[in-house]
Amino acid sequence: MIEVKDIVKTFGEQTVLKGITTKFETGKTNLIIGQSGSGKTVLLKCLLGIHQPDSGSISYDGRIYQDLNKDEKTDLRTEIGMVFQGSALFDSMTVEENIGFPLKMFTNKSESEIRDRVNFVIDRVNLINANKKLPSEISGGMQKRVAIARAIVNNPKYLFCDEPNSGLDPKTSVVIDNLIHEITEEYQITTVINTHDMNSVMEIGENIVFLKEGVLAWQGDKSQIFKTDNEAVVDFVYSSDLFKKVRKAQLAQDRNNIL
Q1: Crossing angle between the packed helical segments 170-187 and 140-152, to the nearest 10 degrees
Q2: Does residue 168 lie in a domain region?
Q3: Lowest-confidence range among 97-101, 153-157, 237-241?
Q4: CA torsion, points 206, 210, 214, 216, in degrees to nearest 10?
Q5: Which pTM does this prediction carry?
Q6: How many domains does the chain have?
Q7: CA distances (Å), 228 to each of 29, 160, 234, 237, 250, in order?
Q8: Shortest CA distance to 156 belongs to which of 67, 49, 80?
Q9: What is the CB neighbour count within 10 angstroms for residue 49?
Q10: What is the Cα–Cα distance from 194 to 192, expressed in whole angstroms?
Q11: Which of the four pLDDT bands, split at 50, 70 and 90, describes residue 258?
Q12: What average pLDDT does range 138-166 have in this prediction?
């Protein structure tokens, strides 16, 4: 579990995060959503240790990041996997070389151990006959699978995903969402996903943190978000006619169940 307590982050005269307090639960897909400029990317970067909060604390299973020494912070970083928005694969490396890169950089595993682990995660994310291919030779959806495989190859406790469905068609996005959810549950990872994709919210939103202008405006799960009367959430979620219809149908069903 990651616990955030009263996080404040300021850039110059602009306060981007204004006292965020929340929890990201282990074994669940935790989503951060909000409009552009709401602070969700800054919050994600604070969780990753890229930005240092001006005040407040972030703890990883009881370990307060600000209290850790240099070696302890390095150890913590080895427990983190990251799926970047654009996959961020090395163009000159094959699929298996991309996936094995963290093991070569951060472990003392032998070549045979690395090969076995790489093949295991390749099989886990259903990458078929792709080991020797370059990123340019596979589809966008397969590139995302490679990025996920690389992120989990070192058995992370914490998995961070920045817009994992960016650039993907709706069908492939659902496949990637479900893969992340399966891995999170299977390996009991604390997964935090920064997203603007409402389809992801509907599919895998087990714990949703909604930010508005640097403030935690609402928190709940995918069923609760369609029932809330929070005006900021309603304005954000139901900006499209599709989700307005979903909300109307959900509320009607709830009334029928009561009757």
Answers
A1: 10
A2: yes
A3: 237-241
A4: -80
A5: 0.89
A6: 1
A7: 20, 27, 7, 11, 11
A8: 80
A9: 15
A10: 7
A11: low
A12: 94
